[in-house]
Structures are given as structure tokens and as C-alpha cells.
Specification:
Elements lengths: L13 H16 L9 H8 L3 H13 L3 E4 L3 E4 L4 E5 L5 H6 L5 E12 L2 H7 L6 E11 L2 E11 L6 H4 L5 H9 L3 E11 L5 H5 L7 E10 L4 E11 L3 E5 L2
Parallel strand pairs: 3-10
Antiparallel strand pairs: 1-2, 4-5, 5-6, 6-9, 7-8, 8-9
Helix pairs in contact: 1-3, 2-3
């Protein structure tokens, strides 16, 4: 595209003007998944240095309009997908209903003592052995969320060996006769902690949506799982259905 003249002495920073022009261009002419020109090409187009272009792009990334893929470039993001939070929500079914291929990568599995909030939410004594499963969820091959699952070990003997991906709730239903029902979901926004930013392929200064949930066995109303999920806020919007 041709050279674009930016307005000086207007009180609006040059990088902000570039961000506004790119935002309009994206909304009118570019499709989700399309790659933007390189920072070098954009700098030449706007007659500015690459640092100024980078600052404009970072602003659009923070707004959930663009994402940077390491070694590939900067791409236009799709609109956030609806993830429904309801009594029987399951990740796999939720995304397949949107026409997306859902997948799970198990990051770690171990037995740990229940501490603090975990023991409280599972209604077990402090230091009771619980299963801790850490999983990465993907939709169409792109990371969407990281989940920490905590389940009483005594109720699910052999579960760590059985579970290697897919729907955890489907497995506990089929193998242990548990009927999951969500009773609580607490949502907050925070910056990614630990390895979450790396796993979710996002910047550390972008927020995640953290959802703390308790699931009970519908037949007894006894808690069987406490989960802590961190969603990429630019790819997901949470919809609560009673």
C-alpha cells in the first residue's frame, strides 16, 4: 500500500495514530488468520522507525485484535469464542459444538497433599492425598486454556494411569460412575503465572481469565473435583447459563 502521512502536532502520539489506522484497515479489509506485513514494511509505509510500529502492534495485541506467532509473524485474531459455563460444561463438547477440533495435552500427573483452599473445596481433611492433573486444552490446534484438576485419590484409584488426554469428566463417568455437576465458578482476571504464558503462547503482560470451579457427583452432591482454569482472554469470552 502507498505511503501514509501521519498528523503531527495534534496531541495524539504517532504510534496511537498508526494503531488506529491499522485497526480500521483490519476491520474493513483483513480476515481472521491473515498475516500482517512485517514491521519493516509497515515502518516504511508510515515513514517511522520499527520501534514506533512495534508499539502500535503491541497495543492492538493487548486489545485482542492481533497476535504474534513466534518465527511466523503477526496475525489477525478471530473474535473470541463463547465458552459456556453451566452445570454440565465440558471443554471438548463445548468447542466441538462451535465446529472446532478440541484436544488435550496432559502436562503432568502426580499425588499431592490437599492444602488450604483445595482441602476446603473438596471437603476433605488437610493433607489428604489428592490427584493433581495439569492439562493444556487446544481448539483447532491453538492453546486456549491451562487447567489444574484436583480429585481425592481414595475416590479414583488408578485414575492417573487411565487418563492420558481427552475428556476427564467422560472418563470418571465411564470408569467410576460419577455424574459431574458444577456448583460453583469464581472468575477473576490476572496476569499469567509460572509457565502459563509459555504454554498458552501469549505475552506475560496480557491477562488470563481465571476460573475456580467445584464439581460434585450429582447423585450425592459430594465434591469430587476442584479445578483452576486459566483461559486466554483474547480467545475466549465466558457465557454463564443458569
Amino acid at each position: 500500500m502507498s505511503l501514509i502521512a501521519l498528523r503531527k502536532n495534534t496531541g495524539e502520539a504517532i504510534y496511537s495514530q498508526i494503531a488506529g489506522l491499522l485497526r480500521e484497515e483490519i476491520s474493513r479489509f483483513r480476515s481472521p488468520g491473515e498475516c500482517l506485513p512485517s514491521e519493516k514494511d509497515l515502518a516504511a509505509r508510515f515513514a517511522v522507525n520499527r520501534h514506533t510500529v512495534r508499539r502500535a502492534i503491541e497495543g492492538l495485541m493487548a486489545a485482542g485484535i492481533l497476535e504474534r506467532r513466534h518465527g511466523k509473524g503477526t496475525y489477525v485474531l478471530e473474535a473470541p469464542a463463547d465458552f459456556v459455563i453451566a452445570r454440565g460444561t465440558r471443554f471438548t463438547e463445548a468447542f466441538e459444538s462451535l465446529g472446532k477440533a478440541a484436544a488435550t495435552r496432559v502436562q503432568s500427573k502426580q499425588v499431592v497433599p490437599a492444602r488450604n483452599g483445595i482441602a476446603d473445596r473438596l471437603k476433605v481433611a488437610e493433607s489428604t492425598p489428592v490427584l493433581w492433573i495439569e492439562s493444556l486444552r487446544l481448539a483447532d490446534g491453538r492453546p486456549v486454556c491451562v487447567t489444574s484438576h484436583f480429585l481425592p485419590q481414595a475416590k479414583f484409584p488408578g485414575l492417573l494411569e487411565l487418563y492420558n488426554g481427552g475428556s476427564l469428566h467422560a472418563l470418571v463417568m465411564a470408569s467410576f460412575g460419577v455424574s459431574p455437576r458444577r456448583t460453583e465458578s469464581l472468575v477473576s482476571a490476572m496476569l499469567p503465572q509460572g509457565d502459563d504464558a509459555v504454554l498458552l503462547e501469549m505475552a506475560r503482560n496480557q491477562p488470563v481469565l481465571r476460573v475456580k470451579s467445584v464439581n460434585v457427583d450429582d447423585s450425592s452432591s459430594i465434591p469430587f473435583e476442584y479445578s483452576l482454569t486459566r483461559f486466554r482472554a483474547d480467545r475466549i469470552q465466558l457465557r454463564f447459563n443458569p
